[in-house]
Amino acid sequence: MAEPSMGNTEGALKPESVSTKQRRIAELAGTSAKMAFTSLNHHLDEEWLRYAYDLTRKDGAVGTDGQTAADYEANLEENLRGLLHRIKSGSYFAPPVRRAHIPKGDGSTRPLGIPTFEDKVAQRAIVLLLEPIYEHDFLPCSYGFRPQRSAHQALRDLRSFIMENGARWVLDVDLRQYFDTIDHGHLRAFLARRVADGVVRKMIDKWLKAGVLDDGQLRRSDVGTPQGGVISPLLANISCTMCSTNGSRARSVSA
To answer: CA nearest 211: which of 238, 187, 229, 191?
Structure first.
């Protein structure tokens, strides 16, 4: 039986094959925090990519290629087969994200990076592979950008803690420009502890190197992962969580 999705498309159903594969990955991840997964990409198939497509917002802004969700859907099966081949063969090209500046309440702006529609689908497919692993690693006190967790839950749990423990102070701390300042070298080292699959790692590297197109100028950097990308919140959580763990070498396992 299909399961309701945890993504951002209400009503999307998770195929049983995807559920089974994710459970297998999660079970292996739960057996040891030191396992590095050497074979994840074999889970990727057309059904997996179709589910990633179902979870991708269809009303979002277009990327640098101007392609809409409707354009992509016109030849959906062919497009997904081609995407799967390019991911598996290593020929996938990650286009630069389009920079958009979103006004904030204080008069400043928040820079967003808008991927192309196909890039959003590809990123979602990789996120579906990685979430079952890292949900075992993330701290219980972490709520941001995680499945079945929300800011409302964080507030409720914080209130419960205060009521039960008599706390009198709450500190609100924000890491300025965290997405923009993640060091790629450190992030790769953190990823290596859990993910040794070459196809998956190359895809992530391509996204990190893709760059940002801002006012017609292409800018690349060895730091940062653009806000707005489907995979960026997960990479930010990995970077934030793993930097607090020890650096012990992971042993390899196939999923």
So the answer is: 229
Sign of the C-alpha dihedral computed for residues 10, 11, 12 and 18 taken in this order: positive
> Considering Cα of 2, then 115, then 129, then 235, what sign does the dihedral take?
negative
Q: Where are the beta strands (DSSP E) in the chain?
A: 3-4, 13-14, 35-39, 97-103, 109-114, 212-214, 217-219, 251-254
pLDDT tens digit sequence for 137-179: 887 788 778 888 888 898 898 888 888 888 788 888 877 788 8
Going by their DSSP bridges, the two strands 212-214 and 217-219 should be labelled as antiparallel
Residue from 121, 68, 67, 90 nearest 230 by CA? 121
Contact between residue 104 and residue 110 where contact means Cβ atoms under 8 Å apart: yes
Rounded to whole angstroms, the Cα distance separating 41 from 80 reads 15
Write the CB contacts of 172 (distance below 8 Å, at least 6 apart in sequence).
none
Task: Give CA–CA dist 109/107, Å, rounded.
Answer: 7
Scored b (16 or more CB within 10 A) or e, 15-36 reads eeebeebbeebeebbeeeeebb
Q: Which of 219, 199, 223 is nearest to 92 (CA)?
A: 199
The pTM score is 0.85
* CA nearest to 226, candidates 9, 50, 63: 63
